[in-house]
Structure formats: structure tokens, C-alpha cells
Amino acid sequence: MIGFADEAIIEVRSGNGGNGCVAFRREKYIPHGGPNGGDGGKGGDVIFCVKRNLRTLAKIRQRHCFKAKNGGDGQGWNRFGADGEDVVIPVPPGTTISDAETGEIIYDFSTASGDEQFTFLKGGNGGWGNVHFKTSTNQAPRHANPGQKGEKRFLKLELSIMADVGLVGFPNAGKSSLLTFFTNARPKIAPYPFTTIIPNLGVLRLDDESDIIIADIPGIIEGASEGLGLGDTFLKHITRTSCLIFMIDCSDENYLTAYDTLLGELANYSDELLEKPRIVLLNKIDMEGAYERAVELAEVIRKKEKETAVIPVSVMMGRGMKEAQKNIVDLVNKMEKRNPSAQEDESTFGNKFMQSRAVIDEFDEPEIQYPGSEQ
Q1: pTM recorded for the entire structure
Q2: DSSP label at 250?
Q3: Which of 37, 165, 301, 355 is most exposed by smallest CB count within 10 Å?
Q4: pLDDT by residue (tens digit) across 334-366?
């Protein structure tokens, strides 16, 4: 898998229109044949297209410039120039297109009403040949129109991973282990901080027709909003989730303040994250003294947030995981019922999202880019 990238600044250019032709009919026994210069061809368009086998903007960022073909010039005998070939830019679901200079949002592929294709820049029109300028007083026009110039823009593409549930926690809290336990994703797991350096996706299969997409982001530390650690840039990948799962390491000495610290970092990034419903998993209760700490912390959180489910678990030993899965499924279903349009429109997040919101070429490359699929 190539490197993960969730931002890219690119240059896009639509094609120039072809020039019109100045030509006259030259044929034996036909004097004063008159003008017969053809029109120029239309320049190619710049088109963005969603494709479900993409999970990163890495290939787009490597290319930098996307330019459509110019239209062909007109020719004699009223022959038109060929239209320029469009440039189609494939993007993953959840991509937002904005102006690189002003920051104005141009198009958002993550909305339920978004189309599969979006034509951003139109190619220039072809110029008229001299056949269009003949009149009764000007029967031999010797001029034609040049083709219209194409447009050029600099764009910023930003990717927000589409998921139902987002995992939040400090490094080594067990987020990647939880993703591995519930899904077939295989993120890197190791006993040192910041093992996860890119977002990972996993699919929790419920039955043959429904599933839940879980997003795991790099660990957050105190001061992440100020740039410490990996910063808070990856928090944008959980802004569109319906709910959050907080992972607390109860074997750590700072277990009592960990939850409040995480809430503070989310608040510094966006108040909307604090409004999302959440579940708190108190992990590593299999370690010595950790279960007693989990019981103590659970009482503290329940006093502050009566509606928040707080569950002591051990991902490594599988303790409490059935209860955790049940609470996650119930919370996601509850949020879907609050948003009936998400159930009526198959193009929203969750079940069958990728199939209904995507376009795939039969000539696409065989490998699928998927964060977290590396072995």
C-alpha cells in the first residue's frame, strides 16, 4: 500500500478550444467555390469522480497537475476539429473540494445528495471557421475565430474518512486492538506510543445485510491541540461519525484524569465532537489493580454523565466485549432512527454506502488502497 494522505493541493486546467479554419473550396470547373473552413473542437472538461476502491489521496498528491486535452483545429472541406479528451480525477468517498487560495468549499462528496460525478471546469469552445462569416457582401471571408481559452484553478482536496463510529484515546489505550477484535482490519499493534500513525478502518459485520464502519485514529495526548505528539489534525476523520468510543487505559497512573483530558482536547478542536453520543470502555482490567480502578472511574463518569455507557473491558482477554459490542450496535441504531433520511437514502453512511456512492472502472488497478490493511 502506498503512503496515506488526507490532503492534497493540485492544479487543474480545462482544455483550450480549437481554432477555426480559413479555407476555400478549390475544385475543377467550380469557380468561386466559396469558404469551407471548419470549426475548432471543444476543449476537454475537468471532472471529479468518486471511486470506492480509493481510501487515500496519495496518488493525487503525487501527480500535482491535471490537464485536459485541447480541442483540435478546424480544417478545410468543413471538417471540424476533434473535441479534447476530458481529464477525470478519481477521489475517495468523503472528499471535500475547496479553493486553495480563498478556502471556499466548491463541492463535498460526503453529503447524501452528492452526485457520483462533478464537472468542475468546462473546456473552451471551438472557434468558428470562415464558413460562418460569408454574406452577400462578403463572399470570401478571410478570417475565423480562435478557440476559447480553458480555465486554470488551484484546489485543495481534503479527505474525511466515512465511518459510523470513531475511536478516541491516548496512545497504547487499546484502540487498534479493539479494531482487530471486532473487525478483519489488521493495524499495526506494538507496546510503544504512536504505533498508529494513519487512520485505520474496520467493518463490524452484524449480518449479511448490515454492518458498522469503525475508524481508528492516531492516539491523542495532552496538548495535541497545540501541536504536541501527532497533533489534532486526524480528528477531522471522526467529525462525521454518528458516535464516539473512548478508550481509557486503567493500568495507567493517570486513569482518573484521562477522560477529562480527552474531552478537553476534543473541545479545543470542535464543540460538535462533544455533542456526539459516546461510550466509554475502561480497558486492561486483566492487569493487576486495573479492575478496581475501572470500577472507581466508572462511578465518577456515571455521576457526571448518566446517559453515557461505561463498560470495563479487557480487549486482550475478551472480557466485557460482548456487552461492549451490544452497546455500540444499539447506539448506532439509535442514531440512525433519529435521522430517518439516512435509512431512506441508501447513499448515506453505513450499510451499502460504498456500493451505492461509487463508480468503478473495469480497468482499475487490481490493488485496493485501504488504511489498516497492511500486514
Answers
A1: 0.67
A2: T
A3: 355
A4: 887 655 544 444 434 444 433 433 333 433 443
Distance, in Å, from the CA atom of 302 to the CA atom of 321, rounded to the nearest integer, reads 19
For every residue of 314-367, DSSP letters joined together read BTTTTBTHHHHHHHHHHHHHHHHHH-HHHHH-TTSSSTTHHHHT----TTS-SS
Q: What would the grid cell of residue 183 be?
A: 473487525
Q: Which phi and psi angles does 9 have, rounded to 5°?
A: -110, 120
Question: In the predicted model, what is the mean pLDDT of residues 26-40?
Answer: 88
Distance CA 195, CA 191 (A): 8
Dist. CA 300–CA 273, nearest whole Å: 21
The 3-state DSSP composition of the chain as helix, strand, coil percent (nearest 5) reads: 25, 20, 55
- The residue type found at 94 is G
Instruction: Return d(Cα 279, Cα 310) in angstroms, integer.
Output: 6
Average pLDDT rounded to a whole number, residues 1-21: 84
**The 3-state secondary structure of 252-304, one letter per residue:** CCCHHHHHHHHHHHHHHHCHHHHHCCEEEEEECCCCCCHHHHHHHHHHHHHHH
**Per-residue DSSP letters for 160-185?**
----SEEEEE-TTSSHHHHHHHHSS-
Distance between CA atoms of residues 373 and 1, nearest Å = 8
Number of helices and strands in the chain (H, E): 8, 14
> What pLDDT is recorded for position 33?
83
Kindly report, residue by residue over 264-304, the tens digit of the pLDDT: 888 888 788 888 899 999 998 998 888 999 999 999 999 98
Question: In whole numbers, what is the pLDDT of the chain averaged over residues?
Answer: 80
3-state secondary structure of 156: strand
Q: How far apart are CA 249 and CA 171, in angstroms?
A: 9
- Measure the CA–CA gap between 183 and 186, rounded to whole angstroms: 8
* Nine cell digits for residue 369: 488502497
Enter the C-alpha cell of residue 187: 493495524
Rg of the chain over CA atoms, in angstroms? 29
What is the reported pLDDT for 112? 43
